[in-house]
Design brief:
Strands 1, 2, 3, 4, 8, 9, 11, 12 and 13 form a 9-stranded mixed β-sheet that branches. Helix content is 26%, strand content 28%. The chain has a single domain, classed as Nucleoside Triphosphate Pyrophosphohydrolase (Alpha-Beta Complex). By secondary structure, it is of the alpha+beta class.
């Protein structure tokens, strides 16, 4: 991918109309996970459509995700993060540490389970020793999160003076990481009312946010480049109403 294309994506985010009249706040650490199926000629991603009654992005197609929780930092895993991924997760972080890096990746895995019912990792005879109730479904299914299979694709901070601000890490892992499933999680009364597998280039035409569209294009570029853990990770942030894209 050329530097010019990255600049185009940053400019697209800058031009998005947004209300920045709210009291400013510190962004909260969050994670989202883009499940990808590369078994066919056209790689596909899993997207969920949010309930129309939600205040935050109602009806939009999104990647499952949410905020990091304290117990995410201590959840055991079948494998740990690739060293390149861990290093990038700790760049430009106020209080860097191994617990934070693995915790933000595990938050993405947990949120995927809570919002889609899909348990990502490796199934074993013995259940993992979960630290609390929010990880109980993994113990019931004997699924151990497999962090070595997770790739960091991008990072983006919500602009200042928005009603909700997040410092989001966008991860991906392949569909073969699905090791279990909780039934009945997605439905008409749930946070996500439907799930759909869509070719990456077609997903950009759905009802999605600007950052989701940009990260989808970052994902396509990463797939084309071979999906190596050592590839640079784009970091989007705003200064004086202009978005910048730096590489971690």
């Amino acid at each position: 991918m050329t530097k010019d294309l990255g600049k185009v994506w940053a400019e697209r985010m800058t031009k998005q109309e947004r209300d920045q009249s709210f009291p400013d706040s510190e962004p909260r650490d969050a994670a989202t996970l883009m499940l990808i199926d590369r078994s066919g000629a056209r790689p596909k991603v899993l997207l969920g459509r949010r309930h129309l009654n939600h205040k935050f992005m109602p009806g939009k197609f999104v990647f499952p995700g949410g905020r990091i929780e304290p117990l995410d930092r201590v959840m055991p895993a079948a494998s740990e993060l690739h060293s390149d991924t861990q290093k990038k997760l700790l760049e430009r972080v106020q209080n860097p540490g191994d617990a934070f890096a693995r915790g933000i990746a595990l938050a993405a895995v947990r949120e995927m389970a809570e919002e889609t019912g899909l348990l990502l990792g490796t199934q074993r005879d013995q259940p993992p020793s979960v630290p609390g109730e929010i990880w109980a479904d993994f113990a019931k299914a004997r699924v151990h999160p497999d962090l070595a299979q997770i790739h960091l694709i991008a990072r983006a901070i919500t602009p200042p003076r928005r009603p909700k601000r997040f410092d989001t890490r966008f991860f991906t892992t392949d569909v073969f990481s699905i090791a279990g499933k909780i039934e009945g999680v997605v439905g008409p009364d749930s946070e996500l009312v439907e799930l759909t597998w869509v070719p990456i280039e077609e997903a950009t035409h759905l009802d999605i946010s600007t950052i989701t569209g940009v990260v989808l294009e970052e994902l396509a570029a990463r797939v084309a480049a071979g999906m190596g853990h050592d590839l640079p990770v784009p970091f989007y942030f705003m200064i004086e109403r202009q978005f910048f894209r730096e590489l971690l």
